[in-house]
# Entry
Amino acid sequence: MQPETFKVMKIKSWLIDKNIQIHQVYSGFYNSFLVCVNNNCVLIDTGREAGYKRLYQNIIKKINTSSQLKALILTHTHFDHCENAFRLKKDFGVKVIVSTFEANYLSSGYCPLPKGTNKISDFLSGFGHRILKNYFSYQPVKADILISGKQNLNKLGFPELEIFPTPGHTKGSISVIVNKKIAIVGDALLRIIQNSTFPPYADDVPELIKSWKVLLNTDCTMFLPGHGFEISKDELAKNYKKYTIKYGLHII
Ligand SMILES: [Zn+2]
# Structure
């Protein structure tokens, strides 16, 4: 593992009610969110391997014992979202949750990059797939729980958490909705550039925009992407309108 240099940053948190909090335990270009309900938590996405120390320390700041971290939910299986899954499973004994469509990618340690949604990202996607496969590979992990549709995490002790399939970036992309208020969406949305939520990579753009409609139809008022900053419902609605027109889509 490469050593990482980082500034000590305050962990950004969202308090949904006194018993439910979301903590951004890895931030910057890659986001990981720790969702705590009463005394138990789940982690959503892991960031890059070089950031494991920071991720680990930030999780430890928010929990009292490692057994409080019950599960790791992977919004999809690209390297930058699950490179630390193997170590988290080893260090915390978490159950790993992923879409049934991506369990094989996870257990092989490689998920192909999606197609680019612009000329540059499309070139990089093709180039990366051919030349940089090793760079996009990670330590394989066997999933413990597979998601094949909309699902509540009641059985794990988290009735406040619901998983929604939000395909398009990849076939098995999922979002986690916390207490019907905030959605953690992986790469279904991106917020690096002001006013744009459109990711540079997506296997199926119409499917992706259909997933935005699914998210807009929830009661959520805020969307936390895998990269960049939070997105308001208004901003998502504006982008939804823009991209349905741009791609000539008629989504009911
Ligand atoms: Zn991705």
Observations:
- The first strand starts at residue 12 and ends at 17.
